[in-house]
Amino acid sequence: MSDSPKQKGLNTSNVGKSSPAREVDVYAGRPAQGHSGNLTGNRRILKDTAADIFNRMQQWKVHQDRGCVVISNIFNLRMERLGIQFPDQLGILVKELKYLCEQMFDIVEGLKIKLRNLTAISVLEKGNSTPLFISWTTEHFCMVKDECKITEKILRAYQKEQKLHQSLLLRIADSMDPDILLFYLSCWTYQPYLDHTIEKELHCMIKETRHV
Questions:
Q1: Residue 22 banded pLDDT, cuts 50, 70, 90
Q2: What is the per-residue pLDDT across 7-18, written as a single tens digit (0 to 9) for each?
Q3: pTM of the predicted model, to two decimals?
Q4: How far apart are CA 133 and CA 138, in angstroms?
Q5: What confidence score (pLDDT) does residue 142 get?
Q6: What percent of the chain has pLDDT over 90?
Q7: Selection from 195, 192, 197, 194 nearest residue 168 by Cα
Q8: Three-state SS sequence of the chain
């Protein structure tokens, strides 16, 4: 009887290559519509906050892509060291994945602070219907959409995704089943809580604040 075919290793040359992360310059872009020169006050805070939120998401992409490579390497290591529960290189790879999860957690915590900043400005500008940039008022940055403020919608999505990543980290080190490892890799890669509308909201915010 012939042996069943062995699971092949993953080619990591194209793993973890999403759209390139591109940060925006806080001080770049055009002045608010109807205003010239440097921005001040709440306009300045909103513009800087929007840029910082966008840039944090680009940092997330970098860590996300690297995590795909690390998990693929863990899978390949398991295929090379079948039956060995803790191969020599496993600890190094898991340690790197843990570091990536910590960085992503810090990104989400930073988003919480930015959300508080936006909420505070929204309270100060309450009742002001004048657009601060192109068409959005201050409240629009925290406006209710689909029963959730836009900025809160972004934050909640990344909070859920970060918790999923942390859960995967706790399971990957102990898993020796190749099919389960591939499932974990898929969960990390496709980020089920970050749908296309999140990316759309981010780009709308950057366009509104005239960074692009």
A1: low
A2: 566 776 666 666
A3: 0.79
A4: 9
A5: 66
A6: 41
A7: 192
A8: CCCCCCCCCCCCCCCCCCCCCCCCCCCCCCCCCCCCCCCCHHHHHHHHHHHHHHHHHHHHHHHHHHHHHHHHHHHHHHHHCCCCCCCCCHHHHHHHHHHHHHHHHHHHHHHHHHHHHHHHHHHHCCCCCCCCCCCCCHHHHCCEECCEEHHHHHHHHHHHHHHHHHHHHHHHCCCCCHHHHHHHHHHHHHCCCCCHHHHHHHHHHHHHCCCC
C-alpha–C-alpha distance, residues 107 and 164, integer Å:
15
Domain ranges of the chain: 42-209
Length of the chain counted residue by residue: 212
For residue 154 the two structure tokens come to 């972004």
| Residue 109 zone, left/alpha/beta (φ > 0; ψ -120 to 50; rest) | alpha
pLDDT-based confidence at residue 131 (cuts at 50, 70, 90):
confident
Decide: 29 and 101 in contact? Cβ < 8 Å.
Answer: no
Mutual orientation of helices 178-190 and 150-172 as an angle, nearest 10°? 160
Q: Which amino acid is at 49?
A: T
